[in-house]
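Slide 14.
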Amino acid sequence: MRRGGWLAASFCLLWLLAVLWPSGVKGEKETEETKRLAVVTADRVNVRQGPGVPYHPVASVHRGDVYRLVDVKDGWLKIEWEKNRTGWLAARYVALAKETAVVQEDRLRLRQEPSRDGRIIGHLAQGETVLVIGEEGGWKQVVTEDAIGWAAASYLAPAEARSISQQTGTVAADSLNVRAEPSLHAPRIGRLVRGEEVDIVEKKPGWYKIASSTGLGGWVSSTYVQVKGGQANEKEAEVPQSAGRSLPSIIAPSDSRLYADSWTSGPVQALAGKTIVLDPGHGGKDGGAKSVAGVKEKELTLGTARLLKNKLQSYGARVVLTRSSDEYVPLSARVAAARLYQADAFISLHYDSAADPDASGITIYYYDRFADYELAQSFQGLFRQLSALPFRGIAFGDYYVLRENEKPSVLLELGYLSNRSDAAVVATNGYQEAVTTAIVNAMRHYFQ
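Slide 15: predicted structure.
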């Protein structure tokens, strides 16, 4: 979790006070149960002992987690994160639940903006329960474990009106893992075989909670369960469009045809459906480092990013470049790309320079010990295996794109342009192929 300005904290506090103590506005939909629920809206947030960054973190919570709200103080919320255990979250990473709703259509589109022109960032499963944190012109902003987005309000019903008959399904894979939670990171607790029938007791995007005749229960990939008596549809309510909201032109999303999300058939890939923001360092008037032979860092980072993008997409990842040409992009806009696209990981690509002409090798930088370090660790084993350049290790880096980033992020220095030998190596096709392959494998390992 990053440090925010006092102005932003004060704004959050005022907003929260307005929600917590409503003044009888007509049409208020909050209930006594939901208005005291705090919903985590960031990927990973520290729970601290007190209301401030200096207090020691005691735990981490994640997007979509819901906790009972206990108190509000100076831009911080006190929650009960375990039974009889409380802690504090920064208000900017939390929203208050307005109501609980049940999805009425399978594969209901979840969009970035409250408009039919909004970018689709995921789908909701029929019967899935979501928490509503906002409403605008026929759309509701909801929180799931995977994303925060807008869904057509006419396909969301109040949770108390829920009436969904239990469905059954048949396993459509030779061997299907059953996991403790709806995540590929969750422990495997058993396996099902092709043709085995299961009861579907709960749905989440890409996952079914099942119960088998043998007594085995848990979460399985919905891709490999054929539901009886119905097929998925892609209906979406026809609702009024809100004013269009343009995205920054400096952000270049990947080709949507190559995006494979959790509904894509075929082998489950660790990168399928993950959004990765690649940040080619420098650009435009900012050339970065330059080798004796004239190799410019801004050109090298862009070439590396383009090659890496293609490889990540081949594994089903959705890739966003902070720049796709030789243009200057402010650091704040690079960080904004990670937030805008709800990135699962942010990777800033650079090539180093030093006064010492003998300085050589690859370095991984991180900022937040809780949010970034695990991502940084994923690279070290693979970089050690590269024979072209030595691996210098993982180091703390107080860089803007890391410090101000809310998403798991790293900055990679992939060789020294100030070193004649390094500069000659990094410009070769062989090195570019090797280092981008190592990065892809590191990301696959991180998301497994």
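Speaker note: The radius of gyration is 23 Å.
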